[in-house]
Design goal:
The complex is a heterotrimer of chains A (about 250), B (about 675) and C (about 400). Chain A is α/β, with parallel strands linked by helices. Chain A has a single domain, classed as P-loop containing nucleotide triphosphate hydrolases (Rossmann fold). In chain A, helix 3 runs parallel beside helix 6, helix 5 crosses helix 6 and helix 6 packs parallel to helix 7. Chain B has 26 helices and 13 strands. In chain B, helix 16 runs parallel beside helix 20, helix 17 packs antiparallel against helix 18 and helix 25 crosses helix 26. In chain B, the strands form four sheets. In chain B, strands 4-3-2-1-5 form a five-stranded antiparallel beta sheet. A three-stranded antiparallel beta sheet of chain B has the order 6-11-7. Chain B has a three-stranded antiparallel beta sheet with strand order 8-9-10. Chain C is globular and about 75 Å long. With about 400 residues, chain C is mainly α. Chain C has one domain. Classes of the chains: A alpha/beta (about 250), B alpha+beta (about 675), C mainly alpha (about 400). Chains B and C meet through helix 13, helix 19, helix 24 and helix 26 of B and helix 5, helix 6, helix 7, helix 12 and helix 14 of C.
Amino acid sequence: MNTLLEVSGVSVSFDGFKAINNLSFAIGSAEMRAIIGPNGAGKTTFMDIVTGKTKPDAGRVTWAEKGQSLLGLSEARIAREGIGRKFQKPTVFEDQSVQDNLLMALKNNRSPFAVLFYRPARAHLARVEELAETIGLQDQLARKSGELSHGQKQWLEIGMLLAQEPQLLLVDEPAAGMTPAEREHTTAILVEAAKTRAVVVVEHDMEFVRRLDCRVTVLHEGSVLAEGSLDHVTKNPDVIDVYLGR
Amino acid sequence: MRPFPLLGTPEQMLRLIMAGLMLLALPFAVSAQEGPMQALLQDHAEIIVKNSRKTIGPAIDAVAASGLPQAQDVLQAWQAKEIWQRKSDGLFFRGEKLDSKTYRLLDFDSGADTGTFPKNELKQIKPNSGIRALIGTALVQFQLTDPDPARRSAALTSLERDPEAAALAPLRASIDGEDDAALKARKLRLERLLTMAFGQGDAERVAAIRSMSGDLSVDVRATLNPLVTSTRRAFAGALPRDVNIAKALKPGSEGFTQADAYALLVTQSRAPAQVTAAEVRDALAQNISGGRAGGIPVAQLSDPARRLEAYDVLAEGGLAPPRVSPRQKAEAIAAHSFADVYTEPSAAVTAAAEQALKGISTRVAVSQAADLTLDALSLASIYFLAAIGLAITFGVMGVINMAHGEFIMMGAYTGYVVQQIIPNHTLSIIVAIPMAFAVTFAAGVALERLVIRWLYNRPLETLLATFGISIALQQLAKNIFGTQARPLTSPGWLDGAWVVNDVISISYIRIAIFVLALIFLGVFLFIMNRTRLGLETRAVTQNRRMAASMGINPDKVNMLTFGIGSGIAGIAGVAIGLFAKVTSELGSDYIVQSFMTVVVGGVGNIWGTLAGAAMIGFFQKGIEWLNPSNTLAAQTYMIIFIILFIQFRPRGIVALRGRAAGD
Amino acid sequence: MQKTFVSRNPSVLIFLAALGLFTLFVTIGSEAVGTGLISTSFVKTLGKTLCLCLAALAMDLVWGYCGILSLGHFAFFGLGGYMVGMWLMYERTRDIVTGALAEAPIPPTDQEIVDAIGTQIFGVVGSNEFPLIWSLADSLVLQLMLVVLVPGLLALVFGWLAFRSRVTGVYLSILTQAMTLALALYLFQNDSGLRGNNGLSGLQNIPGLETVPQSVLSVWFLWASALALALGYLLAVFITEGKFGSVIRGIRDDEARVRFLGYPVEAYKLVIFAATACIAGIAGALYYPQAGIINPAEIAPIASIYLAVWVAIGGRGRLYGAVIGAAFVSLVSSWFTGGQAPDLPLGFYTVKWVDWWLVLLGLSFVLVTLFAPKGLGGLVDLWTNRRSPDRHGADLGPGPGALREQEAAE
C-alpha cells in the first residue's frame, strides 16, 4: 500500500495551548480511516492543518508519492491538489440550487476567466445527475439547497466533495443529527467512495464508526494515542482511561 | 509767526544777529512767557508745524538732547497729540480739553495755566504714526530711567521688538541705577544683544556673541541671523580682499550653475541681458513689413528655429539688440569671480556669529525633536480620546457604529449649550462633562435599543444603518445650530502654554487633553477588569449564549456597554470642542481616523488602541515635520501607510492570536 | 437546460424595453426635438441619473453579489470623470488659446501654445506648468483608455493588497473608505496637478461640437448613458448568471467553503473589484460632461456610502434593484433638495424639505435596513409571488456579507 498523505512531527499551539503535539499520521491511497477522540483532542485542528487553514509551528505534511509539501500552499491550491473537506456543520450554498452547488464543485478549471466563459456541457450535466443519484437527490436538482432537510444537506455536501474528485476526503462528523435510515445511506456513500480514494472520517459516534469497519486512530491531547481496528483500540487501557476518565 | 525780515539793511542784520546771540546766551531773558523749552520749540516751529516724517528728525533730536527736565513731558505730549499752537503768537502749549469747543493751555516750562481758549484760536499738532514712532524712539532713553517700573518695562519691550544702535548708550547708562532685579536682568540681556549688533569694535561684539551663544531664545537668533546674512555678488577679476567673504563660488558647481552666474552678472549690469523668447517675439512683431519679419514669411514664424534666424537678421540690421552667444557668456563668466559676501564687514564678528549659530542650531534641533514629540503625544491623545469610545463599541462589542463621530459632535454641542446657560467657563465645563456623558449615553442606549440590537452579527447592515443615523444627526445639528462654527470657550486657566524654552512649548489645553486621555484609559481598564459590568461585557462578547445561561442578561449588558462607549464619545466631544470649532461636521472629521486607530491597534484590546493612536499621532506629526506646509499630504500619506501597515499586521499591533481571534 | 440567454433571464428583456421606452420618451419630450415638455437641464439630470444607475449596478455586483461592501466605488467613478475631464478641459482651453493667439502678429510656437494653456488651466492654483499626469491629455483616445485603466489599476493594486492579507467584512469597508479619503485629500491639494479644490470645470462644452446646442448635446449624452447602462446591464447579467455568478455568490455567503472547493477566492474578488471599478469609471466619464464640473468633494467617502445606500434601498443582490434604487433615490433627492417639494406646515414649525430631506433619508434608510432588507426590489417579489428558502430565521451563510433570509429571493 503506497502512502497518500503523511503527517510527521506536527505541532501547533494557540496562545501557549498545544492543540497538536508532535502528531504523526499516514494514510494510503484507497483507505478508509476513522479518527476518534474526546473534545479538544485536536481532530478539527488536524484537518485545518492538512487543508491549509492553520499553519503548524513545526513538522511536515507531505502529499502523494511525489513527496510534495503541503505547507505554505493556499487552501484553494490544496483543494485543487485533491483534498476535499466536509465541515462539521453542513455548509452548502443555500441561496443556490442543488444543481448549481454540484456544478460549482465539479472538477474543472477553477481560474476566474475560464469560469466566466464556462457554460455547462451535456457531459457535465449528466455527471451532476449521476452524482445526485448517488446521494439520493436526483429529484431535488432544481430546488434551492436552503430548502433541503438537514440530512439532505449533509449528502449534498458529500456529493459536492465527490464532484471535486479528490484523492483524499476529510469528513467531519457526517452522521451528526441524522435519522438511522439516513445514517445507513451515509455509510454506504462513504464506503463506496473509499474504494477508489482515501477517506478520513472524524466521528464521535462509536456505532457509526463500527459500521464503517475500518482502521481507527485515537487522538488525545494533540497526538496519537492508539491505532488499529476498533476492537483493538477499545481494549487499549489508555483509551479506556481517556474515555472513561472524563 | 514772529516778524522775520527777509531783507534789510546791514544795520538791521547786525541787530538781528546780536539778538540771536543774546537769545542763545540768555534764554531766560527773552520773555516772561517764553521759557527755554518754548524757545527750543520755537526754533523748530517750522518743521513741527510742517509735520512730515522726513524733516521732523532735528526737532525731536533737539528736544531729546536738550537736557531740560521737561523734555520727556513734551515728547509724551507730542506723541499723545496734546500739543496745541496758539494762532495769535505761534507759541506751543499742552492743551487740556474742557469741552468740545474750549481748551485750557498749560505752559511747558512752568506748568502754569495760561488760560482757556476757544478751539478755533488754536491749532493741534497731530503727528502721524511714523513721527510718533520716531518720538517713541527718542522717548526710550527717558523711559529707561523712568521712576515708574511699568514704563521702564514698556520701554524695554519696545526696544526688544525694535532694537537700534542709538539706544545702546542710554541703555548702558541706565543699568547701574536700576533697582528692580527683573528689569535689571532684562536690561543686561538687552545690552548684550545690542552690543552684538551695534557694539563698538570687534572685540566687544565677539565677546557679546560668545556670552550669548548658549541661548536658544528667538531674540538671540534674531540678532545673530542678520549678522551672517550674505549677498551673492560678482567681482571683475579676482575676489577683492577688503570684503568679508562668506563663500567663494565656482560657476558650474552644485547650486551655482553657469546660468546662475550669468544671470548674476546681468542683474549687476556687468553683462548684457540674454534675449528671451518673448523679446524675440516682440522684436519680430515690431518689425513686420510686407508679411515678412527679418526676411522670413510671418507664417513660418511658428517654428522657434526660424524665429531665431529672423531675429538674427534684425539684430544685424541694428533693429534689435544682438543675442548673447554662448562664447560671450563663457567669456563674461570667466572674467569675473563670484562670492557670497557678508553684509557685516567684520570677519571676526561673522565668524563668531556663525559659530554661535551652529551651536545654537544643534541645540534647537534637539529641542525641536522634543517639541515634536510633545506635539505628537498630544495628537495621539486626541486620537485616543476620539477612538476610545469606539474601542468599546467596535473593539469589544464588534458593533460598527458610523454615528460615533456624531456622538462626539453631540458632546461638543452639549458643551456649547451648557456654556450658553452657565456663563462661568470653569463651572460650565465641569457641568458640561457629565451632561455630555448623559446625553450621549442616552442617545447610545436609544440607538442600541432601536436599531443595533436587531442587527447583531450583521456588521455590514449595522454599518449602513448607523450611517443613516449619522447623516440624519448631522443634518439635524445643522438645522438646530446652523452651519457656522460655534465656540466652546475653555476656562481662563487653560489658556496659555507651558513654555520650556523658545522652542519647546505646549498649550495647557493639550496637556489637559493628555491627562483626560490617561484618565479615560484608567476608567476603561477599571470598568473592564474590576467591575461586574466589565466581567459581564467580556462574558457576553465571548459567548453570548453561555453568558445568558449563567444568568447574565445580554440585552442589558449590551445596552449599557454601548451606552458607556457612546457616553465616552460625548466627553471626548467636549474635549475636542475646546480646541476645535464646533460644527456639525466635527464628528466626521474624526471618524475615519478613529476607526483606523482601533483597527491599526488591534481590535478588542485597549492597549492596542493606545498603541494605534500613538503610532498614527507620531507618524502624522513626523510627516508634517518633513513637509510642514502641507497637512493634507500628511493625512494622505498616513492613510496610505495604514493601508500598507495592515498588509503586514492584518490584526493590528496588539493582535489576539489563535482560535479565539476568530475569522 | 440549453435555453437562450434571454429566456434564462427574462428580466433582461423587460429591463431593456423599459430603458428603451424611457429614452424614447425623454427624446420626444426634449427641447432638441422641439416639444419642450422636458427642460434641457432636466434631460441632463435624467442622463446623469442613468450614469448613477450604472455605478449602482457596479456597486451591486461587488457588494450584492460578491459581498464586498466597497466604500470606494464612487472614487473610481470620480477618477473616470477626472480622466475624461482632463481631455475636455485641455482641448477646450487649447481652442480658446489658439483663437486668442491667432490675433497675434506672429504665429505662436507649439511651446507658446502649451504654455498659454498651462497658464489658463493652472493659473488658479498659482502654477503654469503641466504636471506629468497631463502628458496624455491632448489625446482623446488615450485619455478614454485611462478612464478604464486608472480606476482599474488602482482597484487592482488596492484589491491585491487588501485581499491577499484576507481583510474582509467591515475591515475591508473601512479600508476602502480610507482609500477614498486618501484620494480625496490628495486631490484637494493644489499641487496634485488636478487644480486642487477648484476641480475641472467647463466640461459641458465639448470641443469640436461648439455649434451643437446644449439641448441637443444633452439628448446625445442621454443616449450614450442609456446605451452604457444597457451594455453594463447585459455584462452584469452575463457575469452573474453562470457559474461565475455561482462562485461569487458563494464567496459572499461562505468564503471559506468556496476556498475549500479549490477556487482562488482572492483572484475572483480581484476580478470583480477591478471590473466594477472600470464600470464605475465609465459611468463617471459619462456623468461629469453632463454635470459640467468635477471637484474632489465629489469623491469624498460620503458619496460612496450613498452609492451603497441606493443599492440597499433598491434591493441588493438583484441587478434591477440597484438600478431602481439609484434612480429612485437620486431623483427624489434632487426633487427635495431642489426646493421643488412643498413645505410642510406643522403649525408651530414649518418643515423645509431642503433642510430636512437628509434627516428623512437617513431615517428611512435605517427603516429599510431594519424592516425591508429586500428594498424596493421586494415589491417585485410581491408581484411575481416568489418564494424564499425556508431557513427558520437563520442567515444564509456565515460570511459577513451573506444574504439574510428575507433578502434571498432570486
